[in-house]
């Protein structure tokens, strides 16, 4: 570091270094200061200073290693100290909200799913803060130091400014969610698109761990994609998301809520697949699908797994359509891994080979050969994606500095 560095750059370097040290202690702890210095490529004096600050803030603690160190004394290592540090995760779904209280090691302390029947902007905010207050009051005996709130939702959002522009589920526009919650709760507030946050969670502790280039496809009621390229989540810092669900695949198809017709989501969204299966079952009385009046996706996958021709045919059609779009994305992003997050993973031995075949057929052989298709480690529920935003901010040093400055 040269002496004429701007103070803001010094702060930035401090933030990056403290985040790096915290991440290494999280990943390798208990770890000695010497090993930490090597892995972080920072001078021992810097490590001593940073770890002292983290220890004083009760974010890191010293523990004795089981093995013996220098001159037979027990070696001293560092590990994270998560006790008492908590954050609140909020997942806003269609008509419901999930609250999860977690500690900094991501351990889930308590989780509640509540109905969220709201109409417009002010009603949305008022009802949400009422639910937050009630949740914190209900579990006040479990509550310690609340450090942040993290919100995820599948909507058009601006994560940097904390705004929900539009939601497919609620009649809200340009809602300044983060500044409102910050005024009321008084801790840093994070907001991210549900699929983007899910991809971050998979890359940190799930099926994408260790990969630098990931495409995650979600096939659920919503159809979407999250992309990580060279270790960075694409568009995590701005309001655009990579959009595949609203790509027209059937010009004569159904009208979609986005205003177009025949979007991918109207064809391969789970709700639409089930409707299609039920409709087709009337012409196929021999299909297992026709034996039920309330078709679930679990039953649908089981039928396919038992060799039901109709269910198999519909899953193959989903695979071809998804594979077609994936092939183009493989050529653009050259991923190591394609993760599939879907209830259709129950029938993945039918779905994945069709996607694989399409990719092989349509994209550059050098790229398609190395792609590995795998199921996501986590389901499309719960508050782990929201929790991963907190972890990400700790690793970047941003939230650490805010916590340490109290
Ligand atoms: Zn659409």
UniProtKB/TrEMBL annotation:
Belongs to the ROK (NagC/XylR) family. It comes from Xenorhabdus innexi. Pfam families: ROK (PF00480). This is Protein mlc. Keywords: Carbohydrate metabolism, DNA-binding, Transcription, Transcription regulation. SUPFAM superfamilies: Actin-like ATPase domain, Winged helix' DNA-binding domain. One of its GO terms (molecular function) is DNA binding. GO terms for biological process: DNA-templated transcription; regulation of DNA-templated transcription. InterPro entries: ATPase_NBD (IPR043129), ROK (IPR000600), WH-like_DNA-bd_sf (IPR036388), WH_DNA-bd_sf (IPR036390). The keyword rRNA processing does not apply. The keyword Transcription applies.
